[in-house]
Amino acid sequence: MIRHHWQTGRSARTGIVADSHRALRGPYTGLGTVLRLLVPQAGEDRPELVRHHLTEILSAAPELRGRIDAAPETLTSLAVPEERTRIYPANRTRRLAHGATEFLIRYAGTTPLEITFARVDQADPTDQEFLAILLRRADPGRVHVTVETDGTGLLPELAAALDRYAERLPDGPAPAGGDDRDADQLLRAYVEADGTSTDPAERAAYERADPQLRRALHDARAAALRERDEYSLELGAIPWHLEHGSDPAGAGADALYEAARHCGAMGYYHAVIDYGTRGRALVDPDTQMRLFWLLSTRASSAMVVLGRTTEAEPTYLDLRSRYSDPELQMSTGYALAMLYTRFHPDAIKDHHLARGYINNSIAIASLLPDLEKRAFHSVFQNNGLALIEMRLGRVPAALRLVDEGLRRLDQELPGDKHRLHRSVLVHNRGKAYLALGRLAEALADLSKVIELDPNYADYYFDRADARRRLGDITGAIADCDTAISLSPPFYELYYNRADLRAELGDSAGAISDFGYVVELEPDQLDARVNVISLLLDEGAPQRARGYVEEGLELHPDEPRLLHLRGLLALADGQPGAARESFDRALAADPALVAALASRATLAFDSGDPDTAVRDLTAALDVEPDNPDLLYNRGFVHEAARRWAAAEQDYTRALELPGADRDELLERQARCRTELIGTGGPALEPIPAGQSGPATR
Known about the structure:
The protein is mainly α. The chain has helices at about 20-25, 30-45, 45-50, 55-60, 75-80, 90-105, 125-135, 155-165, 185-190, 200-210, 210-225, 235-245, 250-265, 270-280, 290-305, 310-320, 325-345, 350-365, 370-390, 395-410, 420-435, 440-450, 455-470, 475-485, 490-505, 505-520, 525-535, 540-555, 560-570, 575-590, 595-605, 610-620, 625-640, 645-655, 660-675; strands spanning about 5-10, 15-20, 115-120, 145-150, 165-170.
């Protein structure tokens, strides 16, 4: 069987070779190299394939913009930096990675690919995440991947993917001995390696060289790279050279800030932390206050998005202690408020402390001398207060603040200014209406925000939720379809559409969507359980079996999967294996109702009504108002001629919504006939082998 390859050192390379060292081009250095080689020709031969993957292609290889059509713009992508108030979630890179993987898989459907990704241990987390997904999803017979590493620096997901999907090859040959280059050649080789050289001789020559010469070489190399007009170089080699050139605190820090700004806008947060930290170390906090502030907060904001909130907080506190600038105090106060109300771990959240920070920022905003800035920042800060009110359960107060903000923007700022923030406010108001159950108003606001920003997929995702709650399942599915067409793949969209399709009775569509969720993210247990259950309902146990076994490889003690394996064993006529699986499921989760009900059925069919009643009683302890469980226990009691207990269960079940009233009334009457002895026909005991309880 063909497998992907993993080699320490240099492999026998064939096909495309992509040096993935992040110092060259920053995020997606490796993937971008592959796309720059493939996409121009693919755009001519298969333009529909390129159009379908524009977002991920241009995100990883921005220099292709202009050579292929532009991706759909959103208000987020169009906003100037000072008006940008929305950031992408950390998992956006995962969506891009899945989209890029599917591009390569579809491309290789007609043209098989061999790709070597070199120096992957030095790759940015975006490339490592992409490679982990590519190794898992790509058939090595069509897209054969070789990963070269030095054995260190791999993210856990990529290390696990290499262990599972790649064959470990013998180490590559050691570099040839002997080096007859002189000191100048070694120095220039080090510089022209763009920060990637690991050659000790090159490094030594660089360190011995005259500092002024080194700086001049860095300046010259940066200028030469800029002449190539390839934007991704501005995310790797160019900032590195300027950082070590003749003006590190000026040109170097500016280049790092620009790289941080771009990557923050794209959602490449690990790179933002790197650029911001490096830039902060270059500038003088006393004479370059604004640049020091912006580099610092770029890095700290990226930490927050990645969940590293306790690392981020000291940066905000440091800035507040250094400077009295009103806008800095206002913005860092907002950031601290969001930490304590939204981002910090629950154990250290403090909504009242957050209110204190935001109220201070609101006060500062109200005193800003520039009228336009005062209006915008007052609205922005009050929107932060609205978020805090939401988390305190004061939804009407939050709604009032958002309403007031929208009115103020309309009254005091021109209609073409701050369009992104207007859309964010309308969206927030729609979410507040949803929280209050005011669904028609929520739908109106979510429709309005889509008019303002029609290419932002998440808004359709939210409107689908509103439509579903209003009972418009068809409209909700249409919104999911639109969101899917606008975005690289993310599993939540397909999961929600699968639920909606199941609700409409479209089992085939639901199975397809749930199955795709599992393909995207095998750890999504709910989707896996749902697709297995639907396949069993549709009489496709063999298709279900693959999902069960793969899931148990990943999660050997997952109770729901063990229960489903037991159902498959029952379908195969293996009651012993089924009982073992049910027992293991209940050992892991004694309150798993489905497993209790299934084990009760197995006990009843085996002639053990007492055990069946015990399991059904345990299930009813968890779900006391479940009419099907009451029916099932009544059925077992009736089979054992315990008429009073059976009649009591049937009567209780009749009081509950969702009960099968006709069947229950008929069985209740039979039991009462036996109890009162009115001369009605005596019921024969139900044979122990007649399955009944788990059929409901």
